[in-house]
Each structure stands twice: as C-alpha cells, then as structure tokens.
Amino acid sequence: MAPTDGPVPSPPAGGDEGSGRLLSTEEQAEYERLRRHAGVRHRRLRYAGAGVLLVLALLLAPLSVVAAWVDDQVSDTGRYVQTVAPLASDPAVQDVVTDRLTARVVEQVDVEAVTDALTKSLADAGAPPRVVEASESLVGPLRSAVRDVVDRTITRVVTSDVFAQAWEGANRRAHAAVVSMLTGQREGALRAEGDTVQLDLGQVVDEVRQRLVDAGFEKASAIPDTERTVTLFQAEELSKAQDGMRLLNTLGAWLPVLTVALAALAVGAAPRHRLMLLVTAVGVGVMMAVLLVALALLRRAYLDAVPSAALPPDAAAAIYDTFVRFLIDSTRTLLVVAVITALAAYLYGPGRGARAVRSIARRGTSAAGRSLSRAGLRTGSVGLALAEHRSWTTGIVIGAGVLALVLWNHPTVGAVALVAGLVIVVLIVLDTLAAAAQHPVATGSGPATAP
C-alpha cells in the first residue's frame, strides 16, 4: 500500500496513551529525527562511559597482578617457601654462601698464634735453629691449608640436603620476616638493613661449626654467633619499594576484584558487548606484555645496581629470577587468557574469517552427526534440545571453564591450555550430538524425512 501525505496517529506517550491526536507528515518526520538523535546520543554516552571504565580497568590490571602476587607471598607460608626453596640448590648462590662462610671461619682461626706456639715449643725443646726459623715461615701454607679444609667442609654442607632442609626450615619458621622486609621492621630471618635485604643463616653456621669441630678443628667452636647473614638485595630505592609494597599488600585482596568488576561493567555498558569484550581482552593482553617488559627492565636495573663485590652477577640474577618467577608466570597466564578471550570474541563476530571458521566447524560437526546417525546412534529429544538451545549450552560450557580457572589454585599457562582444550572438545561433542538429531537416517519402511 502506497504511503499517504495525510496525518498519521501520534505514537503513544506516557500518561497520554489514549489521545487520538494525529501528526502530520512533517511532524512525524521530525519526531523520527529526534528519536534517532536521542538514540545516537544515548549510544555515545554508553560508549563514553564504557571507555572510561575500560581505561581504569586496563591501568589497574598490571598493578592488580603485582598486588595479588605480593599478598600471596606474604600471607601464604607454603607459597613463600616454594618461592625461595630453589635458591638453596642454585650453584651461584651456593658459591656465594660457601665463600662467605669460609672467609668468616678462617678469620676466626689465628694462624699466627699457632705458628708462634709451634716456634716456641720447638725452641723450648732445643730444636736446631734452622728448624725453628723454618717453622716461622709456615704461616702462609698453614693458612692456605686451613682455608682448603674449611672450604671443602662447608661445600659438602652447602651442597647436601642438610643445607636445603635448613634453608627451607629457616624460611618457613621466619615467614613473618617477609612482612618485616616489606614494612622495614627488623625482625625474623629476612629483614631490611638500611638499603639491603639480608637472610640470617644461623642454622647453617651452626651445622658447619659442628662439622668442623668433629673434623678436629676445636678452634671452630669459638666462631661467634654474630654477623651470620647473607645480603640478598642491595638497592638505594628500598625504602620507596617498601612504601609501595605496603600499599600493594593492603590492596592485594581487593584490587583484582575491582579491576575485574570495572572490565565487566565496561563490557556491559557498551552497546556492542562482543566488540567491547574483544577490545578489553586485547587491552589486557597489551598491559600484560607491558608488565613483562617492565619486569625485564627492572631485572637489568637491579643487576646494574648491585655491586659485584657485594653479590656476583650470576647469584644476583638467580635471586631475582627466583623471587619473581611466580609473578612472571601469573602475567604470562593472564596474557594467554586475554589472547584466548580475544580470539573467541572475534570468532563469534561477523568477520569473514570468523564466518569461515564457524562454517568449517559446522560442516565438520554436521558430517560427524550424520555418521553417528548412519551408525545407529539416536540422540532423540536430547539432541533436539541441544540444537534448540545451542547458545545456552555454549554459554554454560564456557562459564564452567571460566569457573574452573577461577577455582584453580594458581593456574598456569598449561592449566589454561588444558581448560580451553576441554571446553572446545565439549562444544564439539555437543554440536555433534545436536547434528545427529537433525539428520535422521532413511529407513526401508518409508521415504527419508527431509531435513
């Protein structure tokens, strides 16, 4: 029916639904224009609000990862011990501990007093003057021999399971010292001393001292109980780092929750949810990559800041890598999650590549469903229900995968890959069962039912 230029009824309005006033063609056009303008303005406001929420979420994402890592290290004793335990078996760290302990033990052995006593004894015994003079030159060889024996003894201790057990036990008992390091308190085995972070090796010193005494070095029993620490970190910015870590420790429990909430609100507020999910996932992936780069730069700066006289570069690198490895693992895991999320959001979109992938997958599941039907497998009403509620079943499966990762204790890249693989397999199986119900097989009693 051709349109007319006559008056048309006005659209119902709140409180005046029963009015029968008619709008002219010009008024109707103006009304439609204003309504479109209001809709455009509303969408722009939603995009602006979603953009603000997204920017906040992306800025907080790296800070949330670091804050959660710090809170995990401070509050979970097992996790902290798991972090520092590899240091006991690292060759570079073992060499530092051996050298420091050997030097301190040798310092307590008065070689000059031993040679003086020997010289006096020989002289008193009436030994020939040549023998007495030769005994005075034994200081260097004797000191070298003492160092060699002490070094071998300490090396056997440090490279044995005793050292590893002592290391883990000391750190487990002194886990509260992690808090001391972050807050600047001088308590526990791990503590801040000025611009350095030190670990007390008292238990290891006791073991070495006892072994030296058992080996015949009675003088080793005089090794004092003071200054038995090894410097782990040395940096001029330690006080600032402590202030930042205290703040991160406070926010560690809630900052990740706030970040996820902001990202979810950004996706929900945007008019096009799938597109905003894609943008959010890409943004989070970029921020995780930036965090990895920042950690690499921080590692370089730390190694440059630590004097080689205080800590050899290989030992400093081993200590840094050991302490931040779980932070790096978490960042990489979130990067993989972001990439998978972005890929999924793209594949559910209208792009040519996404349509091609969905078409291939649909043909594959349809062929598998027909094969099941020909093999005599009937999915019946279950298959029809899966086909009718495909979007619901897909959402439930994906939601179950997300829940599994949330409940997973410290998920890794491997865990994410495993869950993603299981989700894909389950979706393929469900689509195949749905396709089997939609492709019934012809029987000899009558014509096949057309799909």
Written description of the protein model:
The protein has 451 residues and is mainly α. The radius of gyration is 37 Å and the shape is elongated. Among the domains are: 87-109 and 138-239, no CATH class; 352-438, no CATH class. α1 crosses α10 (238-251) and α3 runs antiparallel to α13. The chain is built from 17 helices and five strands. The two termini are 36 Å apart.
Strand neighbour order, sheet with most strands: 3-4-5
The ordered string of helix (H) and strand (E) elements is EEHHHHHHHHEEHEHHHHHHHH
Low-confidence stretches: 1-10, 13-18, 442-451
Helix content: over 70%
How far apart, in Å, are the first and last alpha carbons? 36 Å
Number of helices: 17
Q: Report the average pLDDT across residues.
A: 79
- Class by helix and strand content? mainly alpha
Radius of gyration over all CA atoms, rounded: 37 Å
Gross morphology: elongated
How many β-strand runs? 5
Q: What share of residues are in beta strands?
A: under 5%
Largest sheet: 3 strands, antiparallel
